[in-house]
Amino acid sequence: MRIAVNTRFLLPRHLEGIGLYTQEVLRRLTAMRPQDEFFFFFDRPWQERYIFSPNVRPVVLYPPARHPILWYLWFEWSLPKALQKCRADLFFSPDGYLSLRSDTPSIMTLHDLAYLHYPEQMPRSVRYYYHRFIPRYLQRAYHILAVSDYTKQDIINNFKISGEKIKVTCNGVREAFAKHPSDRAAESRTARKNFSEGKPFFLYVGAMHPRKNVLGLIRAFDLFKTETGAPHLLLLTGRKAWMTAEIEKAFASARHKNDIRFTGYLTEEELPPLMRAAFALTYVSFFEGFGVPLLEAMHSEIPIITSQASSMPEVAGPAALYADPHSPESIARAMQQLYENPALRQKLIEAGKTQRQKFSWEQAARDLNQMIG
After folding, report:
1. Is residue 372 part of a domain?
2. What is the C-alpha to C-alpha distance for residues 340 and 335, in angstroms, rounded to an integer?
């Protein structure tokens, strides 16, 4: 079989949720199907690290697709020609986009429908593109993978797509999170020395834009510090996406802003030891299709504070302390509970060791392989 794949998100130093999913699933799928030929379609020069096996052929299609107009040109003009040229039997798109002008059987993964729930949090041109094309992509797809049951039900409820067409899959974690050093205490001391002046810290991981509720987290941390006087810091890791002015304003006005650190984007080598050194993960988004940092925290064996919203209870299960993301007071109370109750903290860590076994990249790759047949 000749399988073509949209690999636009395989970008070094920019591997976030969709990019990680693309990398880890394709690394395993190409090994599962050595008899098949894979065509990886990039939208810019590719790197050797992403050519996972001898049966992968990289192809660059132009233009670089990072704007709605360029998305249209890439998916509706460049991609159909490439699919025809390579005589693809199947097209797989891990980022929720397809080509409407190609008749190649297609499978897509949809990670969330955030654009429906928070349309005001994205540029107008992006919102217009999603509203126009995502429903048509879902109809066009031969099969759909949804990364959580919440996302599957969201698709069914909003677009009346048959549930038989949708399979619930999952995300996993990178190997670096699952493998711990022999001397974890020494690793944690080094991480705290490098990032938090040796102090304990709460950690946020992810891009920074309104849906992630970094604004509410900063306000909650301020309340926690005022109430407890704890020595803890708040570390915010990830790139600044868009609409970050309110975050910067909240930081500037925070009473304890000297205890808040923005680390920027961290590499695949930097993040795992930092997470293992954290006092807890604070991931209180308003909405997530899955929430990979929750799973990374379970493998890092740290407790979690997360939201009672969308897919997060489905993923974190009993391994988390839940808060109302719309209430900084609720988030601050959860932080205080962990600070004052070491037994609760350990209970959540132990629950995470069981909960994490439900999710893996191997399972995600098997789900896709089963759909391909």
Report:
1. no
2. 9
Rounded alpha-carbon distances, angstroms, from residue 67 to 63, 110, 111, 133, 357: 10, 19, 19, 14, 38
Q: Which range marks the domain in which residue 244 is found?
A: 175-358
Same domain, 14 and 121: yes
Q: Strand 280-283 and strand 56-60: pairing? A: unpaired
Is residue 368 in a domain? no
Question: Which bin fits 146, alpha (ψ -120 to 50), beta or left (φ > 0)?
Answer: beta
Question: Which domain CATH number covers 25?
Answer: 3.40.50.2000
Q: What's the length of the chain?
A: 373
Instruction: Flag whether pLDDT at 183 surpasses 70.
Output: yes
Q: Domain boundary at 116, 137, 169, which?
A: 169
- Eight-state DSSP code of residue 236: E
Q: What domain count does the chain have?
A: 2
15-48 pLDDT tens trace: 778 999 999 999 999 999 999 999 999 999 999 9
What are the φ and ψ backbone dihedral angles of 108, each rounded to 5 degrees? -130, 150
Q: CA–CA distance from 104 to each of 6, 141, 157, 214, 267 (Å)?
A: 13, 10, 27, 41, 36
